[in-house]
Amino acid sequence: MDMIQPPHHKTVEAREKVVILFAGDSGDGIQLTGSQFTDTNALFGNDVSTFPNYPAEIRAPQGTLAGVSGFQLHFGSVDVFTPGDMCDTLVVMNAAALKVNLHKLKKGGIIIANSDGFDSKNLRLAGYPDEKNPLTDGSLDNYALHTVDVTKLTRNALEGTTLGMKEKDRSKNMFVLGFIHWMYGRKIEGPEKFLEAKFKAKPELLEANRKVLRAGYNYGDTSETFTTRFAVKPAPMPKGTYRNITGNQGVAIGLIAAAQKAGLELFYGSYPITPASDILHELSRNKHFGVKTFQAEDEIAAVCSAIGASYGGALGATASSGPGIALKGEALGLAVMLEIPLVVVNVQRGGPSTGMPTKTEQADLWQAIHGRNGEAPIPVIAASSPTDCFEMAYEAVKTAVEHMTPVILLTDGYMANGAEPWRFPEAKDLRPIVPPFAKPRETDEAESGTLSAAEGRVLSEVEAFLPYERDERGVRPWAIPGMKGLQHRIGGIEKEDKTGNISYDPLNHQRMVDLRAEKVAKIADGFRPIRLDSGPESGELLIVGWGSTYGAIRTAALDLQKEGHSVAHVHLRHLFPFNNGLRGLLQRYRKVLVPEMNKGQLRQLLRAEYLVDAQGLNKVQGLPFTAQEIRNAVLELLAR
Amino acid sequence: MSTVQPAAPAPKKIDYSSDQQVRWCPGCGDYSILKQVESVLQVKGRPKEEIVFISGIGCSSRFPYYLDTYGMHGIHGRAPAIASGLRSVQPDLSVWMITGDGDSLSIGGNHLIHLLRRNVDINVLLFNNEIYGLTKGQYSPTSPEGAISRSTPMGSTDHPFNPLALCKGADGTFISRTIDRDPKHMREVLLRADDHRGTSLVEIYQNCNVFNDGAFEVFTEKDSKPFHTIYVEQGKPLVFANGAKGIKLDGMTPVIVDLTNGTHSQDDLWVHDERDPFKASLLVRFFDDPRKEGALPRPFGVFFVSDRHTHETKMNAQVALAKQKQGDGDLDALLRGKQTWTIG
Fold first, then answer.
1. What is the pTM of this model?
2. Domain extent for A593
3. Residues A310 and A225 grouped into a single domain
4. CB contact under 8 A, A485 and B49
5. Does residue A455 fall inside a structural domain?
6. Rounded mean pLDDT of chain A?
7. ipTM exceeding 0.90?
8. Is-cis flag, bond preceding A577, omega within 30?
9. Which of A268, A385, A431, A526 is the most buried (most CB within 10 A)?
C-alpha cells in the first residue's frame, strides 16, 4: 500500500531524534509492536537503539503494575547510542502502563492512551485512588494527551469477519503499529511483509491483521485530534549494508562464524535461563552449519558436555546467567587445568541468587574473574553493545582456541535483548583462527618402547608425546582422541610439567600455577593498543566504562566535550588480563570516574592493580544508566 | 628375483597398559576390573587412539591413568556429561566411563539418569563397593541401612539405592551386574556391554578391603555363593543352589521353589529373556538383604537389552537433515540475515 499523502491541515514537524516507549500488558503484543517499528526505521536509514523491558512472568496478572511490558525505541537522523533517557511519546495500552511509565515522559510529551484500558477494573488494578481516571481528571494537562479507543476501533475494522472477539482483540497492537507509522511518516510496507510471512498458512488472520494495521494508519490521517506528524530524516551513517541485530543474536552468530573460520564443529551445551536462552534458540536453528546444541539436564552438565566436546576436538561453548555460572564454577576450574578451549557466556542479570531475571546488571565481574577455587585464571572479556556481542563472541573463540583456555564473555540483559543496526562484515574479512593441533604420529612402536629399526634407538624415550609441552606463548598442543600415537591422560589433579602425569611435587605445583598464570597474562600481548572512545589524550577526567554502559557514557562524554570540558572516555573490553596500555592511560588524567551497574567491581580492580584513586558511579536498580546520570556525576567530580 | 614370500607377521597383541604405576590399595577389587578391561580391549583389538576412558572422582576414577588410551579424569559426578559431549562430536570412538557408587549415585545421580534416558553410546562401569573409599570410609548411597561407617558411628539412617532398579527406571537399554571375584563372568558381561549400541550399564560389585571388607562375601564365598546368587543366562531357566532351587513366577511375584522334592521341575521356572522389559524390572528388584530368611538370590548377568536409537545418531541425523534441506551453512548468508538495507 502506498503511503497516503497527509491532507493539508496536518503539519509536519522535523525532529533530529525521537524516543518512543510502547507499554501495556505483557500479553498486549508490545514487544512485537516495538520491534516492528524499529525495523521500519532502521530500513528507512535511521540509527536506532532499543530497550525491551518485560516482566519475568509469562502472563503476569492482567492489568497489574507487575504485568507491564515495555519497549523503548530511540531513532534518529543523528547517531544514537542509547535507547534514550526520557521519551517523547508514550503509548500506553492500559492504566497500569501509564502509572509505571509516566515518569519517563518528557514534560509536554505526547501520550497515546487506549481508553478501553482505563475502565474501572483497570484503574483499580493499577491502584489509581478511588478509580480516578487520569485521562479525564486533568492530571495529565501538562502533556499532549490523545485518547483513542483502540479496542473499539479494532473491532470495528474487523466487523463482518468470522473471527471471535478474543481473536479480534489480539490484533489491536496492529492498530497501534499502523497509527505510529502514520505519526512518524513511515510506510507500512515493512509490517505488511512481516504479516504476510507470519500468517502465510492462515490467510484469514493475515487479512484481519492487515486490515487493522491499515485502519490504524488511516485513523491518524482522518482523525481530527491529530494535527501533527513528525519527520525524522535518515542518519548520516557510514556507507554500507546494514541489518538489525540483538546482543544474543550477535553472540550466536559470532560463535558460529568463529567455529567456521577455525574449521571446528560448534557444540553448545546449555540449560535454559533468562536472559541467555535466546542464544540456544538461535543456535538450534542453525544446524546446517553443523552446530550441535545440547539442552543439558542442568548447568553443570551444560558446561561439562561442552568440555567433553572440546576434548573431542569441537569448539565447546555454553552460556548462562549469574546463578547458572555459579553452578559451572567447578567445571571452569577443570577447564583451566585441562587447558582446552571453552567459551562461557554470562548474560548478566540482577542478582544475587535469583535476583531480577529480566532486569540488567553488571555485578558478575568479580564472579567471572575470581569465582573459582585455587589459582584459576580465566580471560574475561566484555561486549559493550548488541553489535559488539558479535565481535567479542568471535574474539572469545579465537582466544580460547589459539591459547587453549576457557574464556568468559560478559554481556547483560540490556544488550542481549536490545537491538541496533549492524554493518555486518563479510566472511572473508573475519580474522583467521588457527587451532594449535598436535601432529598425529605413525609410530605405534614408540609407545611400547621397541627399537626403531631405522635408527636403532628407543623411540619412547626420544619421542614420547608431551601433552603439556608449551610453545613460546605458553600454549600446549591440542591432541584429540582418534589422533594416532598421541594417547595421553588429562584431568583435574595437578599435573607434572610437560608429561601431564599426576604430580604432588611442591615445586612442580608452584611451576604449573605460574605457567598457567603466565599463559593467560601473555594473551594481552596480542591486544590492539588501547584506544580512547572519545576525548583528549590527557586531561582532567577519564571515564572508564565497560559493558552495556557504553551508549550512555558515550552520549554524556560527547556532550561534555562539546561544552569544552576536559573529559575523555575509554571503554574496556578486556577485563582480565587488562590491556597493557591501561596503566599509562590512567596516569594521564587527574581524575578517574568508573560508572558501573554494580557496587564498584571494576573500580576496585583498577585501584588494586594500578593504585589509582578511581571514583565510582554505581547504580543497581535493574535499569541502565541514563546519559544524564553520567553527566551529572562527571560534573560533580570535576567540581570537587 | 626371489619368489619366496616372507610369512605374514602374526597380529601383534596390543599392550594397553600405560607406564603409570597402579596405586590402588593392595588387594583392592579394582585390580581385577582393570585386568578384565584390558583383556576385553585385547579381544576387540581396537587401536589405542580410538579408545577413551572418562571418569569422575573416587578410587575407581583413577582408572584412566593406567591405560595407554586417551583418558580424562574429570570432576566428581560429572563424567556422564563430559562423555555425552565427547560422544556427540566423536561418534566413532570407543568411549568408556568409569565411576563409583558415590560418584554416579550421589553427587552425579542426576547426570546418570539423564545419560541413560538419552542412551548415549558408552560403556559405563559402575564400581559399587558400598562405601566412600578415597575420602576414607564414609557410608555411601548404596550402603545398607544401619551401616556403621566413620560418618555413621550409630549406623546409617538412610535407605540405600538399588542401582539397577534406578537405571532400569531411567529406561537404560543395557542393564547388567557382575562381581570382581568372578573375572570370567565379568569378562563376558564386559564384552556384551561393549557390543551394545547405547548406554551399557555394568554394575560391578567391588570389594574395598580397607573400609568395607567383605561387603559382598556372601556372594563370593564357596559356602554361601550357591544359595545367595543366581547367574542368569538368555533362554535358560532361573536355577540356583547347585540346581536344587529355582525361581518361578507366580503372577507378578517371583517365588523360590524346590526342585528336589518333586513338586516343581525346571519346566515350571521363569525363563530368562533379556528382551522382556517387564521381567527385567522384576529381576533388578531381587535386592533382598541376604541375611533375611527366604531372601531371593542376588542375580548376576545381563538383565535387559533393548535397541533404542542412541542420542548421537538422532543428533547427527538432524544436522544431516538440516544440511540436506538448507544446504551447507553459508556464513555470508548468516551474517546478512533476513532483512538488510544499504546506505551509500
1. 0.91
2. 539-639
3. no
4. yes
5. no
6. 93
7. yes
8. yes
9. A268
